[in-house]
Amino acid sequence: MKGDSAWSFCVVDDDHFIIELVSRFLEQAGHSVWTSTSSTSAFDEIVARRPTCVILDIMMPELDGLELCARLRAVPELSGTKLLICSSKAYEFDKQRARELGADGYIAKPISHDTFLNEVEAVIRDRINVRFWGVHGTLPVPGPHTVRYGGNTSCVSLNLSGERMFIFDAGSGIRELSGHLMAQRKRIAANIFISHPHWDHINALPFFAPLYVPGNQFDFYGAAHGSLGMRDLVAAQMNGVYFPITMREFGARLAFHDLREETLTISGVEISTMLLSHPGYCLGYRASYRGRSVCYVTDNELYLPTMPAYSVHYVNRLIEFVRGADLLITDTSFNDDAYPAKMNWGHSSVSQVLDLAHRGEVKTLCLFHHEPDQTDDDIDRKLDFATQSLAKRKSQTKVMAPAEGDSLFL
Q: What is the pTM of this model?
């Protein structure tokens, strides 16, 4: 936990060992702490003192932690206080119930000094952590020419407080995410959004180790292709002919959801979708959370205005879809001079993406889904061109080219 802020905490738990341990962690980080072993007597003091964060156990005599959480959340004066459940109950039901009753986060015991403070900070700051696991497109291109940006294909994760994880696409980058999650040695619940089932967006799903772990839970979302729903599309590449392990070997609980253009809410995050200009059904996603938004719009062709296939209606719809986004992660596969020879491949040139981001008043544009032949130096040149072009337009949009492993906080 960063030492640039001093926060106040109330820890409510009937376990004296946990109270001592949590207090020591927080006080060593420079924060003030007071504690209570009584959930009923703690209520009035919390209302009076209005701490930055209340850390609650669930299983307590008198009043359990979820009941206390609901009562505290109903007090208007505590609207700015974060409520964090810290419990040995790691069931997804209890986590979901805690969110429904107003908890801002959930940490499963036993706690570790290495992770606890970071988890608490994530809840208090309530930021969206955007992390890039693969930024190339079409096929993985490991080697000496992709060392700085990485050669894996599309995968981006969004993490919010309370263990809410959203994964966009399952290209070869998801294997890097797999290792990261498995090292944490805890149960995982996540939502996986597939833009479309072309191989560079699903080819590493069979190598995503958390899928094989009993107790984990994953919800898959994406567009159906005719009679083929998301379950069929995920299972098809593991049918025994193309891969020796079938989906029946997955130990995690799985659910599949077929989407078209619609808006839904998942764990407090609003997800909107839009069909994109790409062969087959391909969805762009906009994730909105407490005034911040991330747009994931990859594998999308923006034709040049001089081309017969250019559609003013489509471009205007897409501009409105991304309007005001804090972050737009989008397909910039081709340099302008290369695009005409690759028209109708379903990917965009840099200049048209810059126009989209500028007209949509996007705060930050992420160059993404680079074509396989592009080296680190090519991506540098593409970024330089984009930066200079936006500067000439006096655009407020900033541009970056994220690399594998890069994280952004919104």
A: 0.87
Token pair of 238 as six digits: 């593991």
- Provide the edge-to-edge strand list for the sheet that holds 155-160: 253-259, 217-223, 189-193, 164-168, 155-160, 129-134, 407-409
Residue type, 80: G
Express each pLDDT in 233-280 by its tens digit: 999 888 878 888 899 999 999 999 999 999 999 988 999 999 999 999
Burial of 373 (0-12, 13-18, 19+ CB in 10 A): exposed
SS3 state of residue 249: helix
Which residues of the chain carry a pLDDT beneath 50? 2-3
- Inter-residue contact 178 to 208 (CB < 8 Å): yes
Taken in order of first residue, the domains within the chain and their CATH numbers are 8-125 (3.40.50.2300), 129-409 (3.60.15.10)
Candidates 224, 350, 219; CA nearest to 275 is 224
Conformation bin of residue 45: beta by default, left when phi > 0, alpha when psi is -120 to 50: alpha
